[in-house]
């Protein structure tokens, strides 16, 4: 191919790609695309970071007023501890290219301050910094998932210990395995190094982010044991919570942030990436809505009422379920993935009640169990054309036939699930087990009864004319129906249902 100029000069090119690259370079289009990608990553990182506000509202809405500050400080310092630890160490472990298990270069982002092109006049590559920001927002999400599960009885110091360990080591190693250019399971590694020749499909982190946070939440809630008053006389009691309004607004913020989470995982809008991002937005939406409706229907069938809590967590379950396969599924299979995600969420939530694990916000049903399903679904439903467009490889899910790669892809995803479960499970047991043995994990009975805000955070979150909650006047009229045990546990139980907090709270 030849490009001719008015002065008679001409340049020959071997193919169309060389011509396009020349035009981009000479016209500045390459710099423009680079700048757009950098801005895109910053915007998506901001959307993902906004999810911290969503988590805070969901968690505050799910606990009693006396523990409000405790939730808020954990969410704020999650972001702070996560940023510092991921900057200094975690990012290097996640994306350093030293070996297939863990990275070991780029500590404190030192490699980002070097020119990647000897001919460039740039002192640094801004897109690399935007990429760090995007990945930090993911790391902060993984840590924050745990907060709600262990609410109302976990020491703040213990929480910060495992939050630090999660973002500095446990989570970055999983990121390296699944998303780096050299990880043993990564689909972005050289072809001959990919697991089963294909690598795992976990586009935005059903396993990398949500399983890590969800499994840590499950282990933490198990070691902590249930809140006082959760089980009275061998029966499960519905604990008082602060605000269904907060829960719902928080869920909507999380849903909004998820578009940055999933669409932003293209990392660019160049070439076909913008097309992929557009489809990702739709598969994400359909999975969320189908799961939310499914969980609501199941709640109505088995619990006898239409529950806003089931709708909220059902939506989040669908979002987690589609996160791995959002770029490789067609819309109708995203619909199916969401329905099954809603069933898995509801079933696993009932399982935790049965085995007496008190997960306050149902973080492990939403993030761990649906994270497992989401990664399995990607291995089942990945369409060959979609995989080619988003990964540039010829793999597909088990549902399709693509030269035997369907079985390989499902196998790779299952191996990754098992490996991450083992890795995170072992470290979570060690961290929470040691904290428990040292009696640093759970607050005292007195602190739990009084509330963590008063004992650990300098006072109540709300200024009131009276010390007690708005339910007090109603509670006092029912005082004759309370047994001494119920007063001791700090709950008011009427007709088998918890309706308010007593004076001891």
Compute the CA-based radius of gyration: 25 Å
Gross morphology = globular
Largest sheet: 2 strands, antiparallel
Distance between the termini: 80 Å
Provide an overview of this structure.
There is one protein chain. With 505 residues, the chain is mainly alpha-helical. Helix content is 62%, strand content 4%. It is built from 17 helices and six strands. A hairpin with a 5-residue loop joins strand 1 and strand 2. The radius of gyration is 25 Å and the shape is globular. It starts with a strand and ends with a strand.
How would you sum up this structure in a few lines?
The chain has 505 residues and is mainly alpha-helical.
SSE topology:
Blueprint (H helix, E strand, L loop, with lengths): L1 E3 L5 E3 L3 H12 L1 H34 L5 H28 L30 H24 L6 H24 L26 H19 L6 E2 L2 E2 L7 H20 L9 H31 L4 H16 L7 H24 L8 H19 L2 H8 L13 H33 L7 H6 L1 H5 L15 H6 L6 H6 L1 E4 L2 E5 L4
Antiparallel strand pairs: 1-2, 3-4, 5-6
Helix pairs in contact: 2-3, 2-4, 2-7, 3-4, 3-5, 4-5, 4-6, 5-13, 6-11, 6-13, 7-8, 7-9, 8-9, 8-10, 9-10, 9-11, 10-11, 11-13
């Amino acid at each position: 191919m030849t490009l001719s100029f008015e002065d008679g000069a001409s340049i020959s090119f071997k193919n169309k790609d060389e011509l396009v690259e020349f035009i981009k370079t000479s016209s500045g289009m390459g710099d423009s695309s680079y700048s757009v990608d950098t801005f895109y990553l910053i915007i998506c990182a901001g959307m993902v970071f906004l999810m911290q506000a969503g988590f805070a509202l969901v968690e505050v809405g799910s606990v009693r007023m006396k523990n409000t500050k405790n939730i808020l400080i954990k969410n704020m310092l999650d972001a702070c501890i996560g940023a510092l630890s991921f900057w200094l160490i975690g990012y290097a472990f996640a994306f350093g290219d030293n070996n297939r298990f863990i990275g070991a270069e780029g500590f404190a982002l030192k490699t980002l301050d070097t020119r990647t092109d000897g001919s460039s006049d740039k002192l640094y590559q801004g897109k690399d910094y935007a990429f760090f920001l995007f990945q930090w927002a993911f790391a902060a999400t993984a840590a924050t998932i745990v907060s709600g599960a262990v609410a109302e009885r976990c020491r703040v110091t213990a929480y910060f210990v495992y939050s630090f360990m999660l973002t500095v080591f446990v989570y970055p190693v999983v990121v390296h395995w699944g998303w780096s250019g050299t990880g043993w399971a990564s689909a972005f590694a050289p072809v001959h190094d990919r697991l089963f020749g294909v690598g795992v499909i976990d586009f935005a982190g059903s396993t990398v982010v949500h399983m890590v946070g969800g499994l840590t939440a499950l282990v933490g809630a198990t070691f902590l044991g249930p809140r006082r008053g959760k089980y009275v006389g061998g029966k499960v009691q519905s604990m008082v919570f602060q605000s269904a309004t907060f829960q719902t607004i928080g869920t909507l913020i999380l849903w909004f942030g998820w578009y940055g989470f999933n669409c932003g995982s293209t990392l660019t809008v160049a070439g076909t990436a913008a097309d992929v991002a557009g489809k990702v937005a739709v598969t994400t939406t359909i999975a969320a809505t189908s799961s939310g409706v499914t969980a609501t229907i199941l709640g109505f069938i088995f619990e006898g009422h239409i529950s806003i809590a089931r709708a909220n967590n059902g939506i989040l379950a669908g979002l987690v379920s589609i996160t791995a396969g959002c770029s490789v599924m067609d819309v109708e299979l995203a619909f199916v993935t969401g329905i099954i995600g809603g069933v898995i969420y509801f079933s696993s939530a009932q399982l935790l009640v049965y085995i007496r694990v008190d997960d306050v916000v149902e973080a492990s049903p939403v993030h761990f169990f649906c994270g497992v399903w989401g990664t399995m679904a990607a291995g089942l439903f990945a369409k060959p054309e979609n995989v080619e467009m988003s990964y540039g490889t010829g793999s597909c899910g088990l549902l399709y036939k693509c030269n035997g790669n369907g079985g390989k892809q499902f196998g790779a995803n299952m191996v990754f699930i098992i490996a991450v479960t083992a890795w995170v499970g072992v470290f979570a047991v060690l961290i929470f087990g040691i904290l428990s043995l040292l009696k640093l994990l759970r607050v005292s009975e007195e602190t739990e009864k009084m509330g963590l805000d008063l004992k650990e955070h300098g006072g109540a979150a709300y200024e009131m004319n009276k010390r007690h909650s708005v339910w007090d006047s109603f509670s006092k009229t029912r005082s004759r129906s309370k047994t001494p045990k119920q007063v001791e546990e700090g709950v008011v139980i009427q007709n088998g249902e918890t309706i308010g907090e007593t004076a001891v709270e």
